[in-house]
Specification:
823 residues; alpha+beta; twelve-stranded mixed beta sheet; 50% helix
Length: 823
């Protein structure tokens, strides 16, 4: 221990004598380690951090698969009861499902988001209240008998200012009185990843009372709505529980072949907010691997940069190492001392990296999209977690070994005779270290080039998303939503409400056009169906006939600014009871009828044997699900003919959104004082959900790419700087023999810039090879975009010139007399 302490003190003294070198190395490492720590903090917050529940390691997430459908499935309530009756190795089985709700607790009704949960949901998970109590098991048994609710911590803080006296208070949800019995702990936001965060939890047995229009969740075996969690009994493994559950699944398949046939049950660890379909489909692993690869590239570039500097520095310390060996230091002792210095540098970088990771997490909040609901508790999930510290510490140690071992081993092999004869800058002969340095520069330039090209592609994609034509106006439209199902409207009364509200809104001053629709193109919600065109013969059995759809009211195309290329728009003639009609897009017209003009009057169905819909118009193509999509099938149906209680109102006007919404609230209140409106936004805010994805991608990858470019600049400068320092005597001799400054500059730059060019070529080749994968993540730009590749090549040429300017200037100003003094 005494020897280790001496190594540490000596390392501190040595590094303190070279503050410039130390600062460059520490900052380089901080950037590399910080990028990895930041990404780990995201993975930790969303995938690794356990829910605030008792014994999370015993929890499992349960889902089903079937050969008859793709993806993963949930459970019905009758199935849940049947599984509970059997001995499956599970102590508890808890179910939940999200639902929008209308809450009244004051003058203005408010749309909130809730979860219907089984009575044992909180007790089975092991969630304890911060105020009041949680549900009792008996409160989840009798339908309609227990109108109680538990509030989310953040909702309690926002709506009731953390008032503990809210327990026992009565609020109205969807017209039914509920008693608040407790408040969930901070950080508990449900069990499903990337789902909306519930404001309130209600017993599942109250579902029929508050949302009769949604169907009877408690009795319909085919209504598979439950996201299922369970707790393993002591001594039972996931494999054993899965085997027991599948025995029950086969029994149910025999009893209920229409709804439960061929289902296989699977279990995943459930102590975190697991989303089974994201894991089963590989989406989370793929996304995590992509981000890990990006930040690992940054770390490798930083390590190569620091290794390069240490190699050059080790050459400069050759005389020191020779003296230490001459007085008895062993090779192992030299290596340990130099690795101690590397560890100190890396740990210092790790400390700064923690701060960078915190800044990064805070910066990400600015990219959170505008939605009708919240999907993440940003304040809670972005806070520092103790796991960051051991992760950063271990990563720092691994990085120290990665960049420090080779320079340390090389320094321990110093030739004592030549080192003793050399001047203070180390041996003058031999350029082995320069070759290694150039190889490291080539490696980091290649990796930096890959990141820069990726960053450039994401930047171009962001520019495309911000400027592309979505097929409707990007400005001048204000919108809000309401859900008549929450108030118990039937289809007839709902149509009357929609018509009356539109008449009132169109009469408002400054409103140029108004309509309704659900869902909108590019909305967070989407609908699709099959298209079976009358008389059309598919080109192959694999032809995709899936089309997206929107339900729209009269005036929709005028309000949105979507031009028709043939036929007419949907209007008041297309009412309930009238012939079924549709407006299709150009892609659909060309697929099935060769042209928009020939499509008018043709018919199609959305299911086999279903009613035919006549094409009355063709709208120009637009973007429907994302800005990066290609041409796809899409059609519009009259909302009056296919009633939907959930509706978005569209107002085109030059008035401010604030004044428009104030007037709209008054008109809604005049028709139904208990109906809440939500999703209030203008068109740029609506598109922000899509645009922010590309903005975040460009910012993340662009930040790492700029970091890599900075590290590459430092690496190129470092190699040229030490090249000039090591070859000062040689340069002096050349200049004494008549070499011109320009010839000296060419000599200094030639070899290093050759390695830079090779690195750029290798990096461009790697990026080109990955163009197919990269292109799948972009919008409106190819993964092999020539403009981006050429721009990066020019940028590297500029960086190489900047990095070489000072070393070349120093070489050109070498005084031959001073350079030849050492002997």
């Amino acid at each position: 221990m005494h020897t280790v302490w001496k190594d540490l003190r000596y390392a501190v003294r040595v590094l303190a004598k070279s503050p410039g070198f130390t600062a460059v190395v520490v900052l380089s490492l901080a950037l590399g380690i910080g990028a990895n720590t930041a990404i780990f903090s995201l993975v930790n917050a969303y995938l690794l951090r356990p829910m605030p529940v008792d014994d999370p390691d015993r929890l499992v997430a349960i889902y089903t698969t079937s050969p008859h459908f793709e993806g993963t499935g949930n459970f019905s309530y009758p199935d849940l009861l049947d599984y509970r009756k059997q001995n499956t190795g599970l102590a508890e089985m808890m179910g939940s499902n999200g639902i929008p709700l209308s809450m009244t607790d004051g003058e203005r009704p408010e749309l909130i988001w809730g979860e219907m949960v089984t009575g044992n949901y909180f007790s089975g998970l092991g969630v304890h209240p911060v105020a009041g109590r949680m549900f009792l098991p008996e409160e989840g048994r009798e339908p309609g008998k227990n109108p109680v609710c538990v509030l989310n911590y953040n909702f309690w803080r926002r709506r009731y200012q953390n008032n503990p006296n809210v327990v026992g208070r009565t609020i109205r949800i969807n017209g039914v009185s509920f008693t608040i019995v407790g408040v969930a702990p901070r950080g508990f936001i449900g069990t499903v990843l990337f789902n909306f965060i519930p404001d309130v939890w209600l017993p599942a047995t109250m579902q029929q009372a508050i949302a009769p229009g949604y169907g009877n969740y408690l009795e319909e075996r085919g209504n598979r709505w439950i996201n299922l969690r369970a707790r393993l009994k002591p001594g039972v493994t996931r494999a054993q529980a899965a085997a027991a559950l599948n025995v029950v699944a086969r029994q149910l398949a025999r009893q209920y072949p229409q709804t439960d046939g061929d289902l296989t049950v699977h279990l995943l660890p459930g102590g975190t907010r697991t989303q089974p379909w994201l894991i089963a489909t590989g989406m989370i692993p793929a996304t995590t691997a992509l981000m890990a690869a990006v930040v690992l590239l940054v770390l490798l570039i930083a390590s190569a940069n620091v290794a390069n500097l240490l190699l050059a520095r080790a050459a400069g310390r050759a005389r020191e190492m020779a003296i230490r060996i001459a007085v008895g230091a062993s090779r192992a002792r030299i290596v340990r001392q130099l690795l101690t210095e590397s560890v100190l540098l890396s740990l210092a970088g790790g400390v700064i990296a923690i701060g960078l990771a915190v800044w990064f997490s805070d910066a990400l909040k600015g990219f959170y999209p505008t939605l009708d609901f919240q999907t993440a508790d940003l304040d809670y999930e972005s806070r520092l977690d103790f796991r960051l510290f051991p992760f950063t510490f271990l990563l720092s140690l691994a990085t120290a070994v990665l960049f420090g071992l080779v320079p340390a081993l090389r320094a321990s092999k110093t030739d004592q005779v030549s080192a003793m004869k050399s001047g203070p800058d180390g041996p003058r002969a031999g350029e082995g270290h320069i070759g290694r340095g150039n190889l490291l520069v080539m490696a980091q330039v290649a990796l930096s080039c890959v990141l820069l090209i990726s960053g450039g592609l994401f930047l171009r994609s962001m520019q495309f998303a911000q400027g592309t034509d979505p097929g409707f106006y990007r400005t001048g439209i204000t919108m809000f939503s309401y859900d008549l199902d929450l108030q118990g409207y039937d289809a007839a009364h709902g149509r009357l409400f929609d018509k009356a509200l539109l008449e009132r809104l169109r009469a408002q001053p400054g409103v140029d056009a108004a309509s309704i629709a659900y869902p909108l193109p590019l909305d967070a919600y989407n609908e699709d169906s099959a298209v079976l065109a009358e008389g059309y013969v598919p080109r192959s059995v694999h032809e995709d006939n899936t089309a997206g759809l929107s339900l729209v009211g009269p005036g929709y195309f005028e309000t949105m600014g979507t031009r028709l290329v043939a036929g007419r728009a949907i209007d008041e003639r297309d009412a309930d009871g009238k012939p079924l009609v549709a407006v299709i897009n150009e892609t659909m017209a060309e697929r099935y009828w060769q042209s928009p003009a020939r499509a008018i009057g043709r018919k199609f169905a959305t299911r086999r044997g279903g009613p035919l819909k006549e094409v009355i118009g063709v709208a120009r193509n637009g973007k429907y699900f994302s800005f990066g999509e290609g041409a796809r099938l899409y059609y519009f149906l009259p909302l009056a003919q296919d009633y939907q209680g959930r509706t978005t109102v569209l107002l085109r006007s030059h008035r401010s959104a604030g004044s428009l919404i104030a007037a709209a609230r008054e008109q809604v209140k005049a028709l139904d004082p208990a109906l809440p409106i939500y999703g209030v936004r203008d068109m740029p805010q609506f598109l922000n959900r899509i645009v922010s994805i590309y903005n975040m991608g460009a910012s993340l990858v662009g930040t790492f790419a700029c970091t890599a470019l900075l590290l590459a600049l430092v690496g190129i400068y470092g190699v040229l700087h030490f090249t000039v320092a090591r070859r000062t005597r040689e340069i002096g001799i050349r200049m004494a023999l008549g070499a011109q400054p320009a010839q000296v500059a060419g000599m200094v730059m030639r070899r290093s810039l050759l390695y830079v060019a090779l690195g750029v070529a290798i990096g461009a080749g790697i990026a080109l090879a990955a163009a197919g994968f990269t292109g799948s993540l972009l919008a409106g730009v190819s993964g092999a975009d020539p403009l981006t590749f050429c721009g990066v090549l020019l940028l590297f040429a500029l960086v190489a010139l900047i990095a070489s300017a000072l070393p070349v200037r120093r070489a050109m100003r070498v005084n031959p007399t001073q350079a030849l003094r050492y002997e």
